[in-house]
Structures are given as C-alpha cells and as structure tokens.
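Protocol step 4 of 5: obtain the predicted structure for the target chain.
Materials: sequence only (see below). No template structures provided, no constraints applied. The aim of this step is simply to have a reference model before the mutagenesis design in step 5. Sequence pasted as it appears in the construct record:
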Amino acid sequence: MTIPGPYVPLVPGGDAAAAGPPPVLLWARVYAGVLAVLYLAFAGYGVVLMAQSTTMPRAKSVEPLVTGVFCAVSGAIFCVPSAIALFAGRARWVYTLYLVLIALGMTSCACLPFSVLLLVHWTKADVKSWYGAT
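Step 4 output (structure tokens):
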C-alpha cells in the first residue's frame, strides 16, 4: 500500500487508485472537450468577422471589427481552461476547475441541462475523494 499524498487520497475500503476513476469523470472530460471546441469555434468566428471588416467601407467596418475582436479574445480565453481540464491529471485544483467549468456552462440555456446533471454527480463523495477535495 502506498502512503497517501496530496494527489493520492484514500477511499473507504482501500486505495483510491485501486478503486478506479468515478464514472462521471468520463462525462466531465467529454463536457470539457465540447466546451473547448465550442470556444475555439467562437474564437474562429471572431477571426472571420475581423477579416470581413477589412473588406467593408470604413464607416461600416467598426462594428464587425469590435465584435470580432471580442469574440476572438473571449473565445481564446475560455478555451484555455477547458482544454487544461480536459488533459489535467488528478489534483485538488482540477476538481475545482471542473466545478468552475460546470458553473460557467450553467449560464447557457443550451448547456444548462447537461451542467445540472453533471453538477449533481460531480459533487458526490466518491469524486471528491478521487481528487482529494474532501
């Protein structure tokens, strides 16, 4: 048996590594991957808007340029934590990062049903003990 450290918490009945990952972890990674792709597409849309604003007359090109910059920057900013969560390991901060991503998804009507279901399963004791967030 290994000595538990900050990244290997114990679960009732044995070692957390022997118990295996909780089933909700797969769905949380799928959720983070979908969010990363959506934010990347949003950033790409912003780049397209910026490119289209260069072909317009100067008086009409300001609005698409500002919108494109906003979309590109915000899409890139939100894509990074989603991608980090997708490939992150097993640490306490990863549990919190997924919790923040789930809460962020609750701001969208399209993601709300998935976020609520994921949040219900994510806050269970087995997931917390897997990440050592107890």
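Step 4 remarks: The radius of gyration is 20 Å. DSSP finds six helices and two strands in the chain.
Proceed to step 5.
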